[in-house]
Amino acid sequence: MDEKKERKLLILHSIIKDYVETAEPVGSRTIAKKYNFGVSAATIRNEMSDLEEMGLLIQPHTSAGRIPSQKAYRLYVDELMKISNLGKTLEADIRDSYRQYVEEIDNAIKHTANMISRLTSYTSIVLFPQMDTLNCKHVQLIPIVEERVLMVVVTKENIVKNYEIRLSRAVGNEELVKMNNILNHIVKDSNFKNIGSDLTEKLETLSIEENQLLQEVIPIFKDILLKKQEDSVYSNGITNILNFPEFYDVMKAKSFLDIIEKKSKLVQILNEAGKDALNIVIGTENHVAEFQDCSLITATYKIGGENIGSIGVIGPIRMNYDYVVSVMNFLSQELNSQLNKSEENTKGDTIGK
Amino acid sequence: MDEKKERKLLILHSIIKDYVETAEPVGSRTIAKKYNFGVSAATIRNEMSDLEEMGLLIQPHTSAGRIPSQKAYRLYVDELMKISNLGKTLEADIRDSYRQYVEEIDNAIKHTANMISRLTSYTSIVLFPQMDTLNCKHVQLIPIVEERVLMVVVTKENIVKNYEIRLSRAVGNEELVKMNNILNHIVKDSNFKNIGSDLTEKLETLSIEENQLLQEVIPIFKDILLKKQEDSVYSNGITNILNFPEFYDVMKAKSFLDIIEKKSKLVQILNEAGKDALNIVIGTENHVAEFQDCSLITATYKIGGENIGSIGVIGPIRMNYDYVVSVMNFLSQELNSQLNKSEENTKGDTIGK
DNA sequence: TGTTAGCACTCTGCATGGTCGAGTGCTAAT
DNA sequence: ATTAGCACTCGACCATGCAGAGTGCTAACA
Fold first, then answer.
1. Which of A87, A107, B51, B215 would you call most buried, defined as having the most Cβ atoms within 10 angstroms of its Cβ?
2. Where are the domains of chain B?
């Protein structure tokens, strides 16, 4: 009885494999011939009929072959799929390619996105470090000219963000330093997530004069944390999707591309995808209607053990899951070691300062 | 004889108008009826036949109507078109919408791009200020942690760019200040365009010790000016193009979108478009093959009288030229006054400093 | 009991051919 | 110079028919 079931699954596996390659419904003959099971097409037909009853196969119409259902892909991903390596040389090449992206974290992440889309030929979407997962180390205000000031925020994770701000009046250098000191005093060591309540609390401990000084910077400081959300996502290989017959219909392609352009939606999608090391969201498992013809595979990256963002790839449901998963596994691992290597180097000294 | 020609042009005008609206070849009857010229379709037919001989109309096949040739659009743009205003209320709304984008120049430009694509329903592409058109005012090195340093470059035009860099070793605060001083001494007031030769020249005037100090920062400083090219373009409304029947063919759409994703190509296209206040490039007048089904309308923006970047819109050749031109006129004017208003405010004091 | 060959059936894709309508060019009349 | 009329052309659309792929069922076989 068990080997019976075994064969069914093998057949399902073959069907999925074939369909992923060809995008055409696959018939019993194809399976019998191409994947020599040593039984006739008729037998395969019977098995396929069973698989259809189990909800794993779908027949577009009477005399077409069958295609895997979403449930089948889920089964495949959960139980059938075997994840392989990318191969020593490719892995070494990728590792090498990170060399030039050591300075700015965002570049390493962008590079990861580019690699994802290049390797998988699907569309990649990545989140840059999300402010609300980070912790403030210190803030520095730097005069540019007149009332214009550059605010540099360094997080405990050693991520640097900076923002050009404009005060309502020109502020002298000494005043700016004073501002900076007080500001630092209250934002230091706070967690950006609770910054709203934290700050109002701490502001109360300050003198009236000090409050006055910060009157203008504080709202700006808070704003920044929210505002940059739409800059916090990057995507590459958006036209790759047009290579797949599923999207030859211009309207489908458009609704896909529309979302990719709507950065805020992407942030949401990535946030909903799950926070495991690797997450697979197939078709309607995604809550965003426009992506229900797609599958999404995401991974997270960490600094100092804390999840601070994620990388993902989005393609048709008929996706090469095992390959894509191995790509994502390797790249997220590589990105993580990249990010944390540089942290290891500096962290010790930072704490000591 | 003159009023004869007059009529031909009126007919051409009508055909263009109709074709721009409907994207269907337009026949003699349509023109006769819809734009009541007071003559019969047969007469129009004769005129159209003449216009075709003149190379202004094209007949896709014997029994279809006719469509305007590229030459016709050029004629239209150069001589026939009347540019109107956008209307007081719309103009006021747009002007208002700039309010919130005063802090960072790049945001004002991005906003302009968003407005372009929203108003025209074509795809907008814009260049952020190009480093090589700017002049250096000063540079500031700010320690982040260990060997990581933030380099802030302020231009004479008061544009601020900043880059995270990594030195080969941790550098103490005093040393960094020293570095900063020497660096500033030699880069100050130089024009980024000639920075290569300028710097080598000035480096020779420094002591060996000073040279040593700058050894690492100088190449980085030069790199920066080139490196960020691909970050220097932004585009919005890329999927708008899919609304036009010209791009219902997926392969056409793909080759369009591919270029939009290739930022470096966009920079080239915008640079080739011309540096007048307003430039119109129709179809094959563009040298980039993939955009020869498109028309491009660009405008420049200035700071202190100097061209530093451009904004543009790209759509099908069958474009609503007069409307788009009026949009671009208004927006570039608005952007310019936005950029230079803020400069007026500060320039005086800056020089005094 | 599982497997298989055979056969009728179904459905799509494609080529064919005919009709319709839109639009033209030409000619002759005004 | 303009126009009405008419023959002509071509694409869009639709019905038809055929070939090919694939199925489900049945009866025979190991």
1. B51
2. 2-80, 88-130+232-352, 132-229
